[in-house]
């Protein structure tokens, strides 16, 4: 079946990509998907899986430029934006 879930390409139900830009002071960044598309994210409009609750930018300390991440997207009135980022766990194999 063509629309069957592909766990190899979407582990944990997340798209895969690499953080190519991260501005910690502004709480903004860009993830490049495996298909080469750059998609932005901005705190407080993104949730980081595994981050504590509260604070101005919960989970930003878990993110690093060049790191592989899983992500999910949503639409704003202007563009597509990342809504959830799942940092790679230490035991995860590189994709």
Helicity, as a percent range: under 10%
What is the spatial order of strands in the main beta sheet?
3-2-1-5-6-4
* CATH-derived topology of the domain at 14-72: OB fold (Dihydrolipoamide Acetyltransferase, E2P)
Name the helix and strand elements from N-terminus to C-terminus, one letter apiece.
EEEEEE
Strand content: 35-45%
The assigned structural class equals: mainly beta
What is the CATH architecture annotation of the domain at 14-72? Beta Barrel
CATH uppermost class of the domain at 14-72 = Mainly Beta
Rg calculated over all Cα atoms? 13 Å
Structural key phrases:
95 residues; mainly beta; OB fold (Dihydrolipoamide Acetyltransferase, E2P); six-stranded mixed β-sheet; 6 strands; 0% helix
Account of the protein in words:
The chain has 95 residues and is mainly beta. The chain has no helices and 6 strands. The model has no long low-confidence stretch (mean pLDDT 86). Helices cover 0% and strands 40% of the residues. The two termini are 24 Å apart.
């Amino acid at each position: 079946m063509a629309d069957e879930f592909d766990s190899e390409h979407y582990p944990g139900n997340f798209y895969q990509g690499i953080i190519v830009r991260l501005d910690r002071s502004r709480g903004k960044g860009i993830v490049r998907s495996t298909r080469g598309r750059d998609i932005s994210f901005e705190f407080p409009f993104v949730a980081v899986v595994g981050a504590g609750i509260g604070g101005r930018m919960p989970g930003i300390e878990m993110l690093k430029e060049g790191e592989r991440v899983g992500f999910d997207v949503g639409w704003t009135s202007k563009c597509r934006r990342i809504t959830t980022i799942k940092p790679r766990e230490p035991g995860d194999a590189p994709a």
